[in-house]
Amino acid sequence: MLYDRHGRIVEFYARLHLLVAKAGNVVRKRWENFWSSEPPCLVQLIDRADVLAKLVYVAINPVKDGLVERVHHWPGVSGLRALLDRRPIRVRRPPEFFDPAGEMPAEVTLALTVPPELERGDELRGELAAMVAAAEEHYARVRRKAGVRVLGRRAVLAQDWRDRPRAPEPRRGLRPRVAARDVWRRIVRHRRRQQHVDPEPLRRLRQAIQEHLVHPPPRLQQEAALRTAPRQQIEPPRQDLARHRHRRGLQQGAGHAQPRGRASSPSGVPASRVRIPDETGHSRTAATRHPPPATRRPRPPPAVR
Fold first, then answer.
1. Strand order in the sheet with 283-289
2. Phi, psi at residue 283, to the nearest 5°?
3. What share of the chain is helix, strand, coil (3-state, %, to 5)?
4. Is the distance from CB of 285 to CB of 275 less than 8 angstroms?
5. What is the DSSP letter of 6?
6. DSSP string, 39-103
């Protein structure tokens, strides 16, 4: 659970998913996508009760699914004890993917705290511990009534990373954006989200675009240089030189349009192009003038008797 005070949760998720995917693929010696193609589900919590409910949901999830009996038995990632005991989490850099001489530190320390906006952090930790214990007892009674046992810590660790559930994953469900137990507060927050756009992400986007335009990558610089370079004038073949000049004259407003296969002469008389041999035996193109066709006299009207 994150408190996004400065509106940078999208950047954080992009960086986190990128590094985890690359390191995970190297460790597993695999290729292709590491994460699902669906976007992450980011849910906004409204008040203090909603924050407590989601903290309990995240912590009790392995117990609810029958994997372990207690939250602290879960062998995977869990920050409940670190949050309750105010104990920082130390994480070492994986040796499989990261460069030992790179910019990533060899060890980082993460402290899980309660945001000051929630107030009464000590009371929140006490309420969270009591709610988690009550949830553990509730699911223990449910298992006893159903006559089932938990999978256990050893069985969880003995599973292969390629294993998958037999039941199909539910798809095409709701993707909530706001979580609140009060229905009216949830409706009001949904309407606010539709009417209000946070200016901070837009400001960061504009700044990134300006930096990209001022200092573009080398590939874009090469493409821009090719676009702005002067174009080389290509001389048309000699047999098409007359046609080329004729078309240029038409574009500049000089001359008159002639039928295809005819060339224009300085006198304006249409001329046809013929190929005749020269002294060297090679054929060349010459223009033969044709007089304009005689105008046809109109036929007189028939006499009326």
1. 262-263, 271-277, 283-289
2. -85, 145
3. 45, 10, 50
4. yes
5. S
6. PP---EE-SHHHHHHHHHHHHHHHHHTTS-SSGGG--S---HHHHHHT--EEEEPPTTTS-TTSS
Residues of the chain with pLDDT under 70: 193-202, 205, 209, 211-217, 219-305
8 Å CB contact between 91 and 107:
yes
Q: Cβ atoms within 10 A of the Cβ of 121, count?
A: 14
Q: For 94-150, what is each residue's pLDDT tens digit?
A: 888 888 888 889 999 988 888 887 777 788 899 999 999 999 999 999 999 999 999
How much is the pTM?
0.59
Q: For residues 269-283, b (16+ Cβ closer than 10 Å) or e, as one string?
A: ebbeeeeeeeeeeee
Task: Supply the pLDDT for residue 201.
Answer: 67
pLDDT of residue 255: 47
